[in-house]
Amino acid sequence: MNTNKKTLISGIIKTWGTLLGFLLLLTVFSVLRPDVFPTGRNLKNIIEQVATLAIVASGVTVVMITGDFDLSVGAIASLVGVVAALLMKSGMGTFASILIAMALGTGAGLLNGLLIAYGGLSAFVGTLATMTAYGGVALLISKGTTIFALPENFRVLGQGSMGFLPISVLIMALTVLAVALLLEQTTYGRRLYAIGGNEEASFLSGIRTRQVRLIAFGVSGFFASLGGIVLTSRLFSAHPQAGSPFMLNAAAAVFLGMTAFREGEANIWGTLLGVFIIGVMGNGLNILGINTYVQSILTGAIIIFAVLLSSLAKKRQR
Amino acid sequence: MNNKTQREVLRIEGLVKQYPGVRALKGVDLSFNSGEVHGLIGENGAGKSTLIKILAGIVKADEGIFRFDGEQAAITSSKDASRHGLCFIHQELNLVNYFNAMENIFLGHSYPHRFGPLVDWKQLKAQAQEILDTLGIELPLDIPVLHLSAVQRAMVAIARAFAVKGSIYFMDEPATALTDIEKEKLFAVVQNLKEQGKTVVYVTHNLEDILRITDRVTIMRDGQVVKRSATREMTKDSLISAMIDKSLDSAFPQRSGTIGKPLLEVKGLANSRLDGISFTVRSGEILGIGGLVGSGRTELLETLFGVRSLSSGSILLEGKPYHPNSPKEAIEQGVVLVPEERRKGGLVLSRSIYENITLMSLSEVSRFGFLNHQELHQRAEDAGKRVHLKASQYTHHVATLSGGNQQKVVFAKTVMRTPKVLMLDEPSKGVDVGARFEIYSIIRELASKGAAILVVSSDFNEVLGLADRILFIKDGSLASVQNNTGIDQEQYLHYCYGRTHA
User: Fold this and answer.
1) B297 CA to chain A: closest CA distance, Å?
2) ipTM of this predicted complex?
């Protein structure tokens, strides 16, 4: 009886612990600053703040399901923002500029995939190298400066809204839904998870494992580009290092998400939860007036705590 | 033999282990003596693995008492286990691929040192050599174990268990990867240990091995000990009947159906591991592939499956050229492989039964890349039924199934493709006796429906019991092709060694 109870509790912690932690976080901030934190205005603010991260992290989720890793998303987002801005400044139409810049970013993702799935580089080394190179290209073509004075109609993606709903949040929602559909309803999603579980068995079952991994990097590149565009529009300027925080935050969100809902597998709803944990942490600590350096320390500690808790719960259940 | 010096080294009383939903051990009493080889057998799911995991300190028992040399003690960690002199040689070898044999042997033990913290490699090598010498094993010590053969790797794992001075050695299917000659070496090691007054607990599905080397045998069924006996009082049949509670009168299904037209014609197949192999398999025929471990049997299947490329030769499938460059191309043309190690090559353990069964057929049951969940579920259950898969829920993880049922999942996956040519590499490895017969029946049934079947197995009886003809391979080339009529085990071995007539 006692053992059953213990297993039940650890089962709950394993599946719902991260979500409970998130609710706890919301409660703590609400109690500490009831006048500012739990207001509709602030919550909307949080969602708008995390929209770009959610878009980028959705793509990283796809890569991490197969057990690969993508460090280059931040650099791709920055590069795409800079390229789009330069094209718009050169007189090209806003829509065409965005399309070209995003095609370039998606290509950069596919190049990652080519190097890693076909060239045999480890994902860590491969994307570390391309991150450095793509970041260099962004600095080179922008001459290391921020690009201002973009066309007014570009503002809508990051700052516009449809009635109550901000466009950036709409894009985030569509992204998450699209990735959820890809992972749960398509043969491609099934193959991704199979490769993540056992690459050799997947290969012997007739899956083109290298092609699947290549495409995953392409998907990651595409959503990094989309995130880069929305970010550039939101800031209404392009900086060659604007996307840098995505690199670690996206990975952190996916890792946090792996502790929720499913056992140790990257999954889109977990990633979304991870994104919100990171967003709420940043927002809440800001409201409490806590030093940004301390914020970094706390964010790191929370990730360690969540992953540790879920692995302990898992151990218990054996 | 030396009964005077025998004493009880370990006694286990009332061992109980409850998993969620399953009572894996229901009060097990066991005792082991010094200087004996003790066989422990039972079908998969009988509780052997749980028992061993508890003794190794990996899993905690709910109830039960352990007495080492009469003294009561608890086992709560692997440290406790090794302190009491328990050593384990597992089915899965757990070697560090990039370390050499010497480093693997001493993995987890302290290395000899010199000049303070520096490892004394010379001394380490000498110690490793000493262990290998006492065991009578020859191994290259300096190259990563990655480059060693399966047999050599098993030997490394065995040597590792002897690097600790233990008193009870638990061997869980240590001989699965070994040929008969290497098995003899292992048995000599076991004998050697026994003469030194140690206890060897030998766990295997191979009943002939049990009858040959053990002194006493304990049979488990359904979480309980159902029989303890001196081995000399047991026969293969009595062991089987104790294990499954019903005697099997024939271990292999009757042949049925007729052999038809040639399906697969192989001419002069050659690559880095194969040298000019030619043969033909017909529809409805089961072709056994005999030979020693490492002779190229698995490589032949891999080449036909598109995993390995061929440098020369030609293959015809139903009279048309067949040159697959990947498993995908092979599967699309109706050639399917059940790989040697199901946990490594056959199953995605972290996913559900249903997802595993459908993995090979996703494109067939989807539209524009979108899954048709309902039809996939339906087809998976149909395929599961065809192979008599016992699973309460197809959405459960495949890891929750017993070894036999896991293998049936791999079969269900291939059955869903209705293969023209089905290749089986060690189809009953790690499968218990009862499920084995069912798997043989599935193979027979597929053949009678017109598939051509190739079977590789290290178990002579399996090849002899199933095959219509047997192809013998030695060092990558064809030694002979024999009709499977009246070949006995001794002749079989002669053919493996390349003789063309016995």
Assistant:
1) 17
2) 0.86
